[in-house]
Write a structure and sequence with these properties.
- A 6-stranded parallel beta sheet has the order 2-1-3-6-7-10, with helices on both faces. A 5-stranded parallel beta sheet has the order 12-11-13-14-15, with helices on both faces. A two-stranded antiparallel ribbon has the order 4-5.
- Strand 16 (about 550-555) and strand 17 form a beta hairpin.
- About 40% of the residues lie in helices and about 15% in strands.
- The chain has helices spanning about 1-15, 55-65, 95-105, 115-120, 125-130, 145-160, 185-195, 210-215, 225-230, 235-260, 285-290, 315-330, 360-370, 395-410, 430-435, 450-470, 475-510, 525-550; strands at about 40-45, 65-70, 110-115, 135, 145, 165-170, 265-275, 295-300, 305, 310, 335-345, 370-375, 380-385, 415-420, 445, 550-555, 565, 570-575, 585-590.
- The longest helix has about 35 residues, at about 475-510.
- It has about 600 residues and is of the alpha/beta class.
Length: about 600
């Protein structure tokens, strides 16, 4: 009987994908009424105001029944050079007002927190790379030292016995940001080259803050990097950079030292490694130092369970934190059998130049974080497309990907798709998936972000959805929020990054003589750019939206029982925007029609 049902479901899916038997429902206005249960609010201070740290986190949280409480955007916004400043008169977030905002949430009775320390202590990720001191302006006047703000904040949150707090931190990347506080491309290249140089390896008692500060300037064989940078005219630039690294690492140490004390058992620290290098670079000793400060506790049968984590990727930190918050609250993280399949043959090496680990190592560490373990007989498939080992076999790899997705669909196998190919298949893979796969049936997809981030992004969304389905916690609001997470990933990757962004880059550079990385340098007509964006997206998203609208999705996946499916409704996009006034990323609203049975 089960086999008959599966064959019927597969046949129905083919009919739907072919355009038969499915009536499109008209998309509803956005935003829709909140559907989260009272008492499941999470106070969230984002890393910055990019879509991956704002609306996409909102979608993911709502897909698990949470509602995010967030401060006003101006308090955590990043402004690039020449762009309008924030209300505090700077290009960075307002740390003093954010501090007060968190205290206000605690006074109001909130008991769930996800807090970016880069935002609270420096004013955002970009600002953390150029930190020049510890003073933080308070809203009522005067200043407070970052150390004191941190102590007061952690003390206040630790006083609530029911509080569950996730703190997000990062290991600074190799160089600061171009176009922020005067940073130039020449400075970026010089500092990145300096940061990528091998350093003396520290271990044991030598692995301490003072020795790490000194190690910035010494190669593995005693090479004097000060002399080298002076000869290259980059010493002063490198000196400013290392001072910023010292400040940031010191505050990271203070966080770890505080959490190691009694009273912080309900706190979790998640550290992300920002853009890195496979070389034995300036981050090496910092990473080793922070690893030794990660906490673990005794779990079942006396086994140690990790409490704090250090993983590759920064822009996916909030995804990982909110997903693990739900998994921990529901008792999910106890191991889930998962089939892991790579297609392309290059998983044994870094997926791009900004990774410091092979792709398979990054995936393995994220499996540990989410409580997944590999097994042949599994209830979940994680499918990873890598760069092609053999260029002549690109089409064969694409065909294998399509066949695997089709087989999984026939067997109603929940599937997470990670595109870690770094664009090496061009748009061919997107076109093939649009024509021959049922995209709306995926639990999650990611491929738009830097390669170290796609793993955490896809697994966060996919494991969260799987857990909701298995726990029976899904509601109509959860389903619709999940659908937005998937549609956002697929449409931006396939259509914006794959096609429309390239057209915009060429238009801005060649016809306008502008800078696609900053529409204020020189100032461009943003209405013209938004019009071109909307026109390009309307054209390119049409076939992908048709695919989604003809798809079914898993709506119930009980531990003991048959999976249930529903059909997607209509999908419409509107309110396009460039959050940082640059072409790198976009925001958009996603309207959905009612789902069908």
């Amino acid at each position: 009987m089960k086999r008959v049902k599966r064959l019927f479901a597969a046949a129905l899916a083919l009919l739907l994908l072919a355009g038969c038997g499915h009536q499109r429902t008209e998309p509803l206005p956005y935003p829709e009424p909140a559907g989260s249960e009272p008492g499941k609010t999470v106070a969230y201070v984002p890393l910055d105001d990019r879509p991956d740290n704002v609306e996409r986190v909102v979608y993911l949280a709502e897909s698990m029944g949470y509602a995010l409480a967030m401060p006003d955007r101006d308090l955590y916004r990043t402004a690039l050079d020449g762009q309008p400043l924030n209300a505090n008169g700077t290009q960075r977030g307002d740390m003093g007002r954010l501090f007060q905002w968190v205290l206000d949430q605690e006074a109001a009775g909130c008991d769930r927190y996800i807090l970016s320390l880069d935002q609270l202590l420096f004013g955002g990720l970009v600002a953390s790379r150029s930190a020049d001191g510890y003073d933080i302006q308070l809203p009522e006047g005067g200043t407070i030292q970052a150390f004191d703000l941190l102590e007061e904040l952690l003390t206040a949150l630790s006083a609530g016995p029911d509080n569950r707090v996730w703190l997000l931190d990062s290991v600074m990347r190799l160089a600061p940001t171009v176009g922020y506080e005067g940073g130039t491309l020449e400075e970026y290249n010089a500092i990145r080259a300096f940061g990528a140089l091998p350093r003396r390896t520290l271990a044991g008692q030598d692995l301490n803050l003072e020795s790490i500060d000194e190690s910035y300037w010494w190669g593995p064989n005693g090479e004097d990097l000060r002399a080298q940078t002076r000869a290259e005219g980059a010493y002063e630039t490198a000196l400013r950079h290392t001072r910023s690294r010292e400040r940031k690492l010191l505050l990271s140490y203070v966080v770890q030292d505080t959490l190691a004390k009694p009273g912080y058992e309900n706190f979790r620290l998640l550290i992300g490694i920002d853009d890195s290098s496979l070389e034995d670079c300036i981050q090496k000793n910092e990473i080793a130092f922070l690893r030794q400060g990660l906490r673990a506790e005794k779990g079942e049968e006396g086994k140690k369970q990790q409490i704090d984590w250090l993983l590759s990727g920064v822009d996916d930190l909030a995804f990982k934190a909110v997903a693990r918050m739900y998994l921990d609250e529901t008792g999910w993280v106890a191991g889930y059998s998962t089939k892991l399949q790579y297609i392309g043959g290059t998983e044994d090496r870094p997926a791009c130049e900004y990774d410091f680990q092979p792709l398979s190592d990054i995936v393995f560490e994220h499996f540990q974080f989410f409580g997944l373990w590999e097994a042949r007989a599994a209830g979940l498939c994680v499918l990873v497309l890598t760069q092609p080992e053999d260029e002549s076999l690109k089409q064969a790899y694409i065909n294998l990907l399509l066949q695997t997705l089709e087989d999984n669909r026939k067997h109603q196998m929940p599937t997470i798709l990670i595109d870690a190919s770094n664009g090496t298949y061009g748009t061919e893979v997107y076109e093939a998936l649009t024509k021959k796969a049922e995209l709306g049936y995926l639990l999650a997809y990611s491929g738009m972000l830097d390669m170290a981030i796609v793993t955490g992004t896809a697994l966060s969304h996919g494991v969260a959805r799987l857990a909701v389905l298995k726990n029976g916690d899904g509601t109509g609001a959860c389903d619709r929020a999940w659908a937005r997470t998937l549609a956002d990933s697929v449409l931006k990757d396939f259509c914006y990054k794959g096609v429309v962004r390239n057209d915009l880059l060429a238009y801005i550079r060649n016809e306008l003589g502008g800078d696609p990385n900053n529409f204020y340098s020189p100032e461009l007509d943003r209405e013209d750019l938004l019009r071109r964006l909307a026109e390009g997206m309307e054209k390119e998203t049409a076939p992908v939206i048709r695919n989604l609208e003809r798809s079914s999705f898993l709506s119930s996946l009980p531990f003991d029982g048959e999976p249930e499916e529903r059909r997607w409704g209509g999908v419409a996009l509107e309110n396009y925007r460039f959050p940082w006034d640059r072409a790198f990323e976009i925001g958009m609203d996603i309207r959905l029609g009612e789902f069908g049975d």
